Amino acid sequence: MRCVLIIFLFVFSTTIGQDIENLNKRELRELANSQKKQIIIKNSQINDQKSVIENSSERIKELNQTKIELEISLSKYEDNLKDLEKNNISLIETIKKLNAKNSVIPELENEIVKLKDSINSINNLLFSYKSEDSLSIYQKSSADYGFLNNLYLGYSQIENQTFRLVPAGIIAINELNSDNSYYDENGYRISQFLSMSELKIGIQEKKKTFLTNKNDVKNYKKFIKDNNKIISGPNLYNLYPKLFPTFSFLKGKLLSITNDDESKDFLFSIKEKNTDEDLENQLGQKGKYFSLTDDNEKEYLLELILINNEVYLTFNFRKNSYGNEIEKLGVKWEITSNHETKLIRYYGDDYTQTANLESAESRLMDSDYNNNTRKYTYFPYENSDYYIECDRNYMSIWLVPTIYEKQVRITPGMFLFKLEEI
Hints:
By secondary structure, the protein is of the alpha+beta class. 37% of the residues lie in helices and 32% in strands.
C-alpha cells in the first residue's frame, strides 16, 4: 500500500504538479479518485500477467514430462525394432535352411523310386528262384494262399461256405496316344490294374432327408456337397461294408447273393477254358469263370483273373456286358463322375422340381423384389416340401497322385474282388 501511495504521489506530482495550485478542493478529490482507479487497473493487469506466467510454467512442466515419456517410449520402440530385426534375420536364416532341405526332397523321391524298383527286382528274382522248384509250391499249405488262389490252383473247392466280397482294385483303360478307337497306328488302349491303395473313392449315399428349416433349403448346395465323402481306397470296405454283397454257397451248386437284406438265388458252377488255343489267347492263364444262372435261365459269367500272382473275381462294368442287370448280382451302386444328390421340391400330389449343384441359387425359390435396394429376396415356396435326395449309392473313383501320375477321375472297366470266408 505504501508503494502504491508513493507511485500515486509521483504520478500526481509529475503530471499535474504544475497545475495543482490552480485546482479547488472538489477537483482535487476527483483527480485523486481517477488516479486510484488507474492504479487498480494497472495492478489487475500485473496480476493477470502473473497468472499467465504461472500457467505457462505449468504447461512447460507438462510438456517436459510428455517429452520424457515420449523419449522413454521411443527408446522402447527402438529396442523392439532391434528385436524384430534380429527375429527377421533369424527367420531368413530358417527359411534358407528349409529351402535347402526342400531342395533335397526331389532327390530323396528319386531314391525312393530307385529303392522300390530294386525291391521289385529282388522280389522278381526271389520268385524266379522259387519257381525253379515246382515241388516246393505244391507242398505249401493251402493257408499260404487266399481262397481264390487256392481255388485257382486246385487246392480248394466250393462247398458250403459264405464269403464277403472285399474290393481289391479296378481295371481301367489307358489310352496311350489313342484316338479313342480300339487301336490305331499311333497308339493302343491298354488295360491297367490299379490296386485300392492307388485310389481315392468318393461316396454318395442313398438318402431322402426332409428339410424343415428354411435356411437349410436356401443352403441346399452345402447338403449336396456334404453327401459326397472322399475316402482312401483301402478304407472303402471298412467304412461301407453294406455296399458289397455276400456270397453263400450250398453244396457248390446253389449261390445266394445277399445285399441290403435282399437275397437272390442262382444255380452255380465253375466253367473253364483251358485248351491250348485258349491258354495261348489268355497268356498262359487258366480260363476259370463263376457261372450264375437265374430263374429266367439267364447266365452271368464272373471271370477269375490272375494279376501279380493274385487271383481276383471280376465284375464287368463295361457297357454291353450286363447293362443295368448287374444290380441282380448284388451291386447296389453305380459309378459316376457327377454330384448325383439333388434338392427336390414337392408340391401337391405329383408336382416336383429338381435342383442340383450347378443350378442357380434362385431355382425352386419364390421371390420378392425390393424397390429400395433393387434386388430380389429368395425364400422357399409356401405349401411345398423340400428334400435332399440321392436315389441310390454312387461311387466316383480318383487316382492318387504320385511323382509320375496326376490326380484324375477314373471310369473302371472292371471291379476286382477278393473272397473272405465268414
